[in-house]
Amino acid sequence: MKNTRQHYGWLAISLHWISAITIISLFALGFWMVDLGYYDSWYKTGPALHKSIGISFFLLMLFRLMWKVIQIQPESLSSHTEIEKKLGHWMHLALYALVFFIMMSGYLISTADGRGIEVFQFFEVPAISAFIENQEDVAGLVHQYAAYTLVFMVVLHASAALKHHFIDKDKTLTRMLGLK
Amino acid sequence: MKKTLLAITLLASSLSAIANAADYVVDYKGAHASINFKVQHLGYSWLTGRFDKFDGKFSYDPKNVSATNIEINIDTTSVNSNHAERDKHLKGGDFLEISKFATAKFVSSSVTDKGDNQLVVKGELTLHGISKEITINAHKIGEGKDPWGGYRVGFSGTSEITMKDFGIKMDLGPASAKVMFDLHIEGVRQ
Prior knowledge:
The complex is a heterodimer of chains A (180) and B (190).
Chain A: H1 10-33, H2 42-70, H3 82-110, E1 117-119, E2 123-125, H4 135-166, H5 172-176
Antiparallel strand pairs in A: 1-2
Helix pairs in contact in A: 1-2, 2-3, 3-4
Chain B: H1 2-20, E1 22-26, E2 34-41, E3 45-51, E4 54-60, E5 69-75, E6 79-80, H2 84-91, E7 103-115, E8 118-127, E9 130-145, E10 151-162, E11 178-189
Antiparallel strand pairs in B: 1-4, 1-11, 2-3, 2-11, 3-6, 4-5, 5-7, 7-8, 8-9, 9-10, 10-11
C-alpha cells in the first residue's frame, strides 16, 4: 500500500488514476452540460451530478494530498535529466494547484447567493458568503478558463509520460501503472 | 406672413408646453421605483425577477400628458432572479449577453391620455442591442407634495415583449416565449 524509494504503493497509484478519470469526466460533463436545452432531461441532472462529483472529488483530493505529504516519494529515475526532473516536479505542483483552484471557483459560483451545494442528495455543503460583486460571473469565467488550462496541462503531462515510455523506454509510466 | 405667424404661435405654444411640464428624476436612490419582469416556467407558474440598477427621467404635465417624455436606462448586469446560477445564465450568451450589451434603454415616442389616469406609452426599447417599439399600459397612482419639501408623482405600468424579437436565443418553451414587465416608477420633481 505504501510508497517506497523505487515504487508507488497501490493506494497512491489508485488515487492517481481515479483522479485522472474524475478530472476528464468532470471536464467532459461540464463542457457538455452548459449547452443543454431547457427541456433536456439532463438539464438539471447534469449540473447536480457535476457539483456532487466535484465536492466528493475535493474530499478525495484532500486525502490524496495528505497521503502524499506523509509518504516517502519514489525518487526520480536516474535516467531522467535534471531539466526533466524539474519540469516534472513543477507540473505535478501545477496540476495539484489548478485542481484545487478550479474546485474553489466552482464552489463560489453555486454559493454566490448563499445557497449551499447538495452532494448526491446526501448532505449539503453550506455557502460561506459572497465575497465580490457579480461573484457568479467572475467565478464562472475563472472556473471555465482554469478548466481549459488544466486539460491542456493534463495533455502535456500525459504526452510526457508517453514520451518516456515510447521514446526513452524508461519506467516512468509503468511505475505509475504498478508494473514492476 | 400668416404661415410665419402660425409657426411662431405653434413654436411658442410648444415652448410653453415644455416650460409647463415639470422635469422629474426617477427615484432610484430611494428605491421608490422598480423594474420587475416575469416569465412563465414551463407554463405551470411564474418566475419573477427584476433589474436592480437603473435610472431615468421624465417630463410630466398633468394638463398636457401627450407632451410627456420618458427616458429610462437599465443596467442589464444587475438582473436579479434571486438565484445566482440562474442570474449567471441570464447574463450569459443565451439571454442578455451583458459582455456586449451591458445596458438597455427605453425612450418614449408618444404618450396618450386615456382619461381616468390611464395612459398608453409607446416608445423604443433597446435590449440586447436591438431596438423595437413597445407599448406600456400605464396608470398614474398619484402625485403631490412629499413630507420633506419635495414633489412626487408615481405611475405603474405593464408591458410585454417576445424574447426572440430581441435576438435572445434561449428557447424556454412555447409558454415562456414572452417576458412581462411590471413597472413602478416614482419621480421626484427637480
